[in-house]
Specification:
The chain has helices at residues 22-26, 52-58, 158-167, 189-197, 234-240, 261-273, 286-291, 302-312, 318-342, 363-381, and strands at residues 2-7, 37-40, 44-46, 68-70, 97-99, 105-109, 117-121, 127-130, 149-152, 175-178, 208-210, 223-228, 249-252, 279-282, 297-300, 347-352, 385-390, 393-398. It has 399 residues and is an alpha/beta fold. A 7-stranded mixed beta sheet has the order 14-13-15-16-12-17-18, sandwiched between helices. A 6-stranded mixed beta sheet has the order 5-6-7-8-9-10, with no helix packed on it. Strand 3 (44-46), helix 2 and strand 4 form a beta-alpha-beta unit. Helix 8 (302-312) packs across helix 10 and helix 9 runs parallel beside helix 10. The chain is elongated, with a radius of gyration of 25 Å.
Length: 399
């Protein structure tokens, strides 16, 4: 089954008409995208882009043989052209199945937002799933196995991909292609970096893909360290890396601070950002969590873990530090680093980068800075990906 993407953008396209934002200003060449429309084996057209006949011709295809046109969502972009000779576009009621003369079978998938998803089975038995912008499956229980390809709004609805993974409808070999791309994410390198972190990819308009053919699925790292200064956006970057995975366990090493209203407000903001399916554990006992099998871990953050570890060994008192405290802390750090190296789980760790600031005025402050720098370096050595976040921009240091 061959699939040609006549467009891969949001309904208004990219760049959006008249939009002055930075993403639209840089969406040129392969990063410019028409509204998403898919041509399957030159016989089935899913959604329409302005000028579908010309879009197909630019891709070396033709819409002359299209036997069925299906719409997936209320169209809010530019006026759509209905070329003469094409079948009348329709939307299939949820759960309804239809057979196309070309030998394709189509099933309408119910969503949690206005619109309809389509499961397409080709004459060769390969299966793909196409979801409209802003939509996620309302229920995928009883899936007969992973789709060969999934096309969805991976940037706007990463939780849709998480649901598919949770039910087995998307597996390690599923080719996840991002469509309905809008100006919320900078195009080019940053878009591809964010998609690769969740095991998805984007292709230019006009690309033809063979469903079921081997494709190097982006290698999702098992261990990632996200560094950054205060309010740099490091926690947002860490959360974004796991938005498309189900059942994430968020490990907060901060604990609660009774009576500190500002701290309570910060914690509340973090919780509001996280998907509702995530669970939270407040603990600094990280080694057992890393050793156990289970869903991905997001550990935020190592600086607070180190503070707790230094408290436990009396590191703030010079005499205690020089008479066993330093050795005890080194043992705690070595145990944590070994657990990160051996963990069977996907884990994203957040830590503060404090080595570029003002030298602390106190001995205890310098001690903490030095120990955190050493901890970050040791953890970074064990991670496939290391990212530094500055002013909300993620700079890959490794991977």
């Amino acid at each position: 089954m061959e699939l040609t993407l006549l467009g891969t953008g949001a309904p208004q396209g990219l760049p959006r008409p008249g939009c002055p934002c930075a993403s639209c200003a840089t969406a040129t060449g392969d990063d410019a995208r028409a509204a998403t429309a898919l041509l399957v084996d030159d016989a089935l057209l899913l959604d329409l882009t302005p000028g579908p006949a010309f879009a197909a011709a630019r891709a070396g295809r033709s819409v002359a043989g299209v036997r069925q046109v299906l719409l997936s969502h209320p169209h809010d972009g530019p006026a759509v052209e209905f070329p003469a000779g094409l079948p009348t576009p329709v939307r299939v009621p949820d759960g309804r199945e239809l057979s196309v003369i070309s030998g394709h079978r189509v099933r309408a998938v119910a969503l949690d937002a206005p619109g309809t998803g389509y499961e397409v089975t080709g004459p060769d038995g390969e299966r793909l799933l196409y979801l409209p912008p802003g939509g996620a499956p309302a229920g995928m229980s009883g899936a007969p196995g992973p789709y060969a390809m999934v096309l969805l709004d991976a940037v706007g609805r990463p939780d849709a991909l998480a649901r598919l993974r949770e039910t087995g409808a998307a597996g390690p070999t599923t080719d996840v292609v991002a469509v309905h791309l809008d100006h919320d994410t900078p195009p080019g390198r940053e878009l591809h970096r964010r998609l690769a972190a969740v095991g998805a990819r984007a292709v230019p308009d006009g690309t033809t893909l063979v469903v079921g053919d081997f494709h190097a699925v982006p290698d999702v790292p098992r261990r990632t360290l996200v560094l950054g200064g205060a309010r740099s956006g490091k926690s947002v970057e860490a959360e974004r890396r796991l938005d498309a995975f189900p059942g994430v366990l968020y490990v907060a090493t901060s604990g609660s601070r009774e009576g500190d209203l500002d701290w309570a407000a910060r914690v509340a903001r973090h919780r509001e950002r996280r998907p509702g399916s995530w669970r939270t554990a407040e603990t600094c006992d990280l080694v057992p969590l890393l050793a156990a099998d289970g869903p991905p871990l997001l550990i935020d953050c190592l600086a607070l873990w180190l503070t707790d570890a230094m408290d436990s060994v009396g590191a703030w008192d010079d005499a205690t530090w020089h008479n066993g405290g330093a050795a005890a802390l080194a043992g705690r750090v070595a145990e944590l680093v070994a657990a990160i190296r051996a963990t069977p789980r996907t884990v994203v760790l957040v830590s503060n980068e404090v080595g570029s600031g003002v030298v602390p005025a106190t001995a205890s402050g310098r001690r903490f800075r030095d120990e955190l720098g050493r901890l970050n370096a040791m953890v970074g050595d064990e991670c496939e990906h290391v990212v530094l976040v500055v002013a909300g921009q993620a700079l890959p240091l490794r991977g």
